[in-house]
Amino acid sequence: MKFLILIYGNPESREVWNGMSEEQQKEAMVGYAGLSEALTASGELIVSHSLDDPSGTKQVLVRDGNVMTTDGPFAEVKEQLAGFYLVECDSMERAIEIVPQIPETEFSLVEVRPIRDLSHLT
Questions:
Q1: CA distance 18 to 115
Q2: Mean pLDDT across the chain, nearest whole number?
Q3: Where are the alpha helices (DSSP H) in the chain?
Q4: 83 CB neighbour count, 10 Å cutoff
């Protein structure tokens, strides 16, 4: 089964990150690298990325064949997607076991969502 582990940030979690010393930030990045290496070694990691600041976002709408864009995130929520891991593992329980290994979980929200298999429709 495939699961998307979504890491959300908000202004407060960004402040926590920005308030860390460069050494603390490097230590957190070592944690991310270690998690990626462990998931690669177990064969569970498909891909992982950190996303840039939400202010660089473009929202794209297509209505009646017209493409319209707006700058920045448009969601009426505090939390914005900050990064993700796409993993393939045996169960939701295993995917949840991965979450505490993500360095930012102490000050972020993490969501684990199953990937829907639509291969039977092609």
A1: 32
A2: 89
A3: 11-19, 22-41, 92-98
A4: 19
